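As a representative case, the lines below give one protein's residues and fold tokens.
***
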Amino acid sequence: MQNIVTNIWCNGNAEAVGQFYASVFPNTRSWVESRYPHEGLLDFQQSLAGEPLTVAVDLDGMRLTLINAGPEFTPNPSISLMLNFDPILFGDDAMAARAQLDAVWAAFLDGGTVLMPLQEYPFSPRFGWVQDRYGVTWQLILSDASGEVRPFVMPSLLFGGPVQDRAAEAVDYYIQVFPDAELGMRVPYEVDSGPRRRAR
């Protein structure tokens, strides 16, 4: 059972965003879950009367909720969705996993922006970070077939700027808050760096 559902703020286009994600991924569908009423709306909501309020996306078994609203907020790279292309999920076929990763990358790149190029890195033979045409960021990684199997979709939180170096602290806190949570892999940087360290 999925305990945490990722919600994504959309600027009046949640239905189109959901349809786009359904076209990018296999085994994925989207549907309008609720609509704004025609009466009783606040002034700034009048243009949304009768329009979708929330759009649900079932991304290969993981639920996302798209909130249809206005331009008050926009997605940013501090929260992204990591996609694990594990050969185990593709019948132990590394080439199939890589081909699917490349296909999803190409779809996101259409109208999107590269944050980290799709290439080999010390932590993965193929990784890339992209912001799609709707401002949502995705990290695509070709996982190690010999390692621990991870979910295909994992929400990822970025701790930078004034909260740099506090990710471990946040993890410890979340483990206390959620009764079924458990610690996964923890990989520290080999050398302290960044603006928070320099500011001390």
Q: What stands out?
A: Residues 87 and 145 are 6 Å apart (CA to CA). The mean pLDDT is 89. DSSP finds four helices and nine strands in the chain. The longest helix spans residues 94-109.
